[in-house]
Design a protein that fits this description.
5-stranded mixed sheet, Serine Threonine Protein Phosphatase 5, Tetratricopeptide repeat, single chain, Zincin-like, globular, mainly alpha
Length: 498
């Protein structure tokens, strides 16, 4: 409460001394919108006592942040020539994209008012209970880590495809496709691709937490956080809401940094461009994420629990090109050089301790596709024979890959080979994230061993990884939200259903 009052007093003093002309209002509106406070932004305009086309464009911006695209478009129409400015054109494009994403969408708000979701595909409503739980956890961990208090509802839009994701956020479609972008935190909301749009799903709950960390950091720093800080903090925090898994960050970000450094692929952290989603390739994006995550952890550890929050607060009020120099006495370049030297020093130890994930032999995906088709038809024995045809060299390239683990586990389950199944479920962990079915099988074996608590956790992980895989979320005897999600997963598998 004290922090919020101080912000209001600061804004009022600024208005009293500086807001003599209408053109000063837009910048302050953006400050309040960065804090996810549309009421504060609206109050700035009202207190300024000004009107006119430029102010209409700013009110349209507020409407976009509130998820009111029709209101925004009406205001832009009324603004006339001012709506033709660069700012106005961008807003109009975003408003049209948001209208496309949400017109006819199913909207839900949680009972406590903390979460508002618009589902472009009505079948995604089955995700709401898990989405709500994730947002509660994300608001808690971002509050603890970043010192941000969520005072307004979290706004999420789930869309059908990457084209709509691009239109509703302003990200170029080709960039979304090139880097495999799944979600964007911008315009006061998280816009995310529905897990139903991808084959095998993705860690969608981690993705939600990642994007909410972006919004929280934007609010704390008044949108002055550099891209490396945004991505490093968000990537680091995306798993903080849950228990760690053995295959989280395998290989570690430092391993990818070292590899990119050796190949001359490492980009300076302050030269990443306007967005990781706009880098030229998925590999470039992966290197950027790894570099930013590693650097942020190094910086936070070195600064400690007192100076790290102070640095974040300094970003909000500073206009310096090097806030690190102001806050710590060392320039960004000095910090970056020290971090990279540290990673290089630890490189030999890391290479000995970290399991490598070699490039997958090209014969493997074909065999796995055939194996999956056989498993889907409950021919586990035939699937194992097909997978056995993969040669020794190819097998070494994939034997610790999560999808390979999952497919073998399903085949062993159909063959009723519990010894081989348990070896895959409770033995050496895969090097990459397994599919949802792996968790569901492990949950069933947990419960068979009398460990209901572990079973419940594994069922949650199955939903978190692959919510629309029937083999991941469907099982006899389930009721309530689990039964509803199973129905949605089975419906999605019907011919002609998206």
């Amino acid at each position: 409460m004290r922090k919020r009052r101080n912000l209001q007093v600061g804004a009022s003093l600024f208005l009293a001394t500086a807001l003599g002309h209408a053109q000063r209002a837009p910048g302050i509106v953006d400050e309040w919108l960065a804090r996810l406070d549309t009421q504060g932004a609206e109050r700035v305009i009202r207190d300024a006592g000004k009107s006119g086309p430029r102010i209409m464009v700013q009110i349209a911006r507020i409407a976009v942040h509130r998820g009111q695209p029709k209101v925004a478009l009406s205001l832009l129409d009324a603004a006339g020539a001012e709506a033709g400015s660069e700012d106005g054109r961008e807003l109009r494009s975003i408003a049209f994209g948001l209208l496309h994403a949400t017109e006819g969408a199913v909207e839900r708000t949680t009972d406590d008012g903390a979460l508002r979701v618009q589902f472009q595909h009505g079948g995604d409503v089955a995700l709401l209970p898990w989405l709500a739980d994730t947002v509660v956890a994300a608001r808690r961990v971002t509050g603890e880590s970043l010192g941000y208090t969520w005072s307004s509802p979290t706004y999420v839009v789930l869309v059908r495809d990457q084209q709509t994701l691009a239109e509703a956020t302003g990200l170029p479609y080709e960039s979304a496709r090139t880097t495999g972008t799944l979600a964007i935190a911008k315009w006061g909301r998280v816009t995310m691709l529905s897990p139903r749009a991808t084959e095998g799903g993705f860690p969608w709950r981690d993705t939600i937490v990642h994007e909410l960390a972006h919004l929280a950091l934007t609010a704390v720093t008044s949108d002055h956080a550099p891209l490396w800080l945004q991505e490093g903090v968000a990537k680091d925090m995306e798993t903080h809401w849950r228990e760690r898994e053995p295959f989280d960050e395998q290989p570690p970000p430092e391993a990818l940094v070292l590899e990119a450094d050796a190949k001359g692929e490492l980009l300076p952290l302050d030269k990443l461009g306007p967005s990781v989603a706009m880098l030229p390739s998925a590999r470039s994006a992966a290197i950027a994420f790894a570099s930013a995550t590693s650097f942020v952890r190094y910086l936070r550890s070195d600064l400690g629990p007192q100076r790290w929050p102070a640095y974040l607060r300094a970003l909000a009020g500073s206009r310096s090109s090097d806030v690190l120099l102001e806050a710590t006495g060392k320039s960004f370049g000095t910090w970056q050089a020290a971090w990279l030297a540290s990673v290089r020093r630890e490189g030999k130890t890391m290479s000995n301790a970290t399991p490598s994930v070699p490039e997958i032999d090209r014969d493997v995906p074909r065999r796995m596709r055939i194996g999956r088709l056989l498993v889907e038809r409950a021919h586990g024995e035939a699937a194992m024979k097909e997978l056995a045809r993969v040669g020794d060299v190819a097998r070494r390239s994939v034997e610790r890959e999560g999808g390979w683990f999952t497919l073998h586990a399903l085949a062993h389950d159909q063959r009723h080979d519990d010894v081989a199944l348990d070896a895959l479920l409770f033995g050496a962990a895969p090097a990459t994230d397994p599919r949802g079915a792996w968790y569901r099988l492990r949950a069933r074996r947990d419960e068979g061993r009398g460990d209901g608590s572990a079973g419940a956790k594994d069922r949650e992980k199955a939903v978190s990884r692959e919510p629309y895989g029937p083999e991941a979320v469907c099982e006899d005897g389930r009721t309530g939200r689990e039964a509803a999600l199973c129905d949605a997963a089975r419906q999605r598998m019907q011919p002609g259903v998206e």
